[in-house]
User: What shape does this take?
Amino acid sequence: MTKIAPSVLSSDFSQLGREIQDVDRGGADYIHVDVMDGHFVPNITIGPLIVDAVRPHTELPLDVHLMIENPDSYIPAFAEAGASIISVHQEACLHLHRTIQLIKNSGAKAGVVINPATPVDMIRESLHDVDLVLLMTVNPGFGGQSFIPQVLQKIEQVALLREKQQLRFEIEVDGGVNRDTAKLCADAGADVLVAGSAVFKQGDRKQAIQEIALAAGR
Ligand code: DX5
Ligand code: ZN
Assistant: This one.
């Protein structure tokens, strides 16, 4: 079953609690929370305070995507605030193994993310340590960008490595996911589809989630 993780980046931030409840009732599996620091990516969003504020509004896992430099300095605060899964960019981690252990020791599940231009080889040694591998299908920083189809090969590559090594992590994709690209990603081996504008910019979020899930073959 393909999971859908609506990204609150495209939601109405003035109504964040209600927006999250809307997609929770609409059939979302995770709530994807994009954290940007204005350094690792050219945009600034939210911090642990907001994660803490939204935590009581849903029982769904909060899937926190850290697009920040020095993630080690903030991981404990995000875990404390209620993040269920914390994903860090390989490109932002000099000592990735240590950072993954820090996430786990903080009590959250650990994810690793790579940008479209980063080869899968860069995370090969970490695959047995993580609960989630997130493959960016856009350059991180903004919602509403176009899907980069070259990443489909990387999804297949990660799915094959997982099978060969008998590992259990989930494969998530993030960026430009809509009804058309959802099927491509699911066919390539993605388990979790992040969708921002394709869910939150639609009037009927339940219908939007159902349509993406249906397209993915759920
Ligand atoms: C981009 C973020 C995404 C973003 C996706 O840097 O990581 O999660 O919200 O937005 P859409 O689905 O609109 O491409
Ligand atoms: Zn994201």
Remarks:
- The helical segments are 16-25, 48-54, 75-81, 96-105, 151-164, 179-188, 197-200, 205-215.
- The two ends are 5 Å apart (CA to CA).
- The chain has a mean pLDDT of 98.
